[in-house]
């Protein structure tokens, strides 16, 4: 009975370990290290303030994003040229940024600048928006408390690219549920596999000892 139970544990554990590991690796490799917890629209010339319940030890990052229309833009080597300068003041608790949202100036990053709007992202993801992004942080929370996020962008000084929308996104570094569930399934599968292997080994040893005793008696 124990041997059969052990074999069942081995099979179930092996399947769970394989499934959990495969799905966990797939989700982990697509995880950028940032888990969105807050998204809010942003209007040029209107200050935005949001409060966040921060957890001790977690790292938080604020992303200021401005999305542009693709029509009416010039091209260079198959890439759209976006000329824009939006004054920016942003802070995430003690992490602060003062400067300009300019797609051509780092640390601002321009995404989705391919002239072909049908170009899809990595792993078959939907085509990226034509968007400039500026990050504030990461900032690590020293304790559980409320933190303030304030952002203000000004009108585009160049006015050569049409703005579709602007927003902020606040991220933390918590693992997504898909990854934690996959890790739990994989870990549970490994433990079940180990338990089943132990049951099979001990049942075989016990069967051998019982057979040796019967032969000795006969």
Describe the structure.
With 218 residues, this protein is α+β, with helices and mostly antiparallel strands. It folds into two domains: 2-22 and 179-217; 33-174, Jelly Rolls. Helices cover 32% and strands 35% of the residues. The chain has two helices and eleven strands; from the N terminus they run αβββββββββββα. The strands form three sheets. A five-stranded antiparallel sheet has the order 1-11-3-9-8, with no helix packed on it. A four-stranded antiparallel sheet has the order 2-10-6-7, with no helix packed on it. Strand 6 and strand 7 form a beta hairpin.
N-to-C order of helices and strands: HEEEEEEEEEEEH
Radius of gyration: 28 Å
What are the segments in which pLDDT stays under 50 over at least 5 consecutive residues? 26-31, 121-126
Overall CATH architecture of the largest domain: Sandwich
CATH class type of the largest domain: Mainly Beta
Strand order of the largest sheet: 1-11-3-9-8
Structural class: alpha+beta
* Main sheet properties: 5 strands, antiparallel
Number of strands: 11
Dominant shape: elongated
> Can you tell me the CATH topology of the largest domain?
Jelly Rolls
Distance between the termini: 25 Å
What's the overall average pLDDT, rounded?
A: 75
Q: Provide the number of structural domains.
A: 2
Task: Break the fold down into its secondary structure elements and pairings.
Layout: H1 2-29, E1 35-41, E2 48-54, E3 59-68, E4 74-76, E5 79-81, E6 86-92, E7 95-101, E8 109-111, E9 131-140, E10 145-153, E11 163-172, H2 177-217
Antiparallel strand pairs: 1-11, 2-10, 3-9, 3-11, 4-5, 6-7, 6-10, 8-9
